[in-house]
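Researcher: Go.
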Amino acid sequence: MARNRVRKGRPLDGWLVIDKPTDLTSTAVVAIVKRAFNAQKVGHGGTLDPLATGLLPIALGAATKTVPYIMDGTKRYHFTLRLGEARDSDDADGEVTATSDVRPTDDELREATKGLTGDIMQVPPVFSALKVAGERAYDMARDGRPPELPPRPARVDRFELIDRPDADHAVFEVESGKGVYMRSLARDVALACGTVGHIAALRRLRVGPFTEVDAISLDKLVASAEEAPASPELLRPVATALADIPALALTSDEAALLLHGQALGLLNLMGRIPETGPDAVVRAMDGERVLGLCRLEEGWLQPVRLL
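Model: Structure:
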């Protein structure tokens, strides 16, 4: 007879924003957070490369259900482009594959960013987690079989040159949507200027509703958990990830029906429905409590994901 598996650890729900240090993978940070809180279920809201620093949102318990909404949010980055050297990983951790003596002017760099802003097609780095015929691209690249990755649609909302420390380096600020590779932007802006380059430093400053003021250092978290598991007071509410989604207030009776998976007729909700487009997603609320996400669909409020 099958037995229900009992998860080890505390059943904690909420978000923690870690200021990730360099030389750690996102998976390693998740493991550290899970140990620090002795938590049952932990995940992250968007991978950062080992070289990168900055915001890594960590989801605990029910917050893992809202990870897709964090990953769909706007991201903001600063990265330093090292001009004159191409690397196989498109960042400083890789091997040099080409060099160039061409050093573009500031105006040439600014002009190149224009062609990489808006809706673009982007070729991901070969050292990425994308799967090719069931294999991770980075595993194939490490085995000396770098795959040919096709271009993918990407949305870059802002791409600005903000500093030029010297002829070999340029610092950019980028705001983008989901799935945009900063390493590819660095590679491509150099190529557009007739040279080669790679990312020498990368920092993420924003993920959806989270900014640097929300972040805690990993060292501080580990220190706080030396004597006992980290305090749940460090966690932000699950609903923080859904702050940008319009709210719809329900009565207690309506909330009870919704939580049992029943759709609600929109006629009974008139006057409370936020102004949104057709088939929009809203945040169903019972007072201050977030019930989950629902879609306004063909005259009904349909539950999509309940928390």
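Model: The two ends are 30 Å apart (CA to CA).
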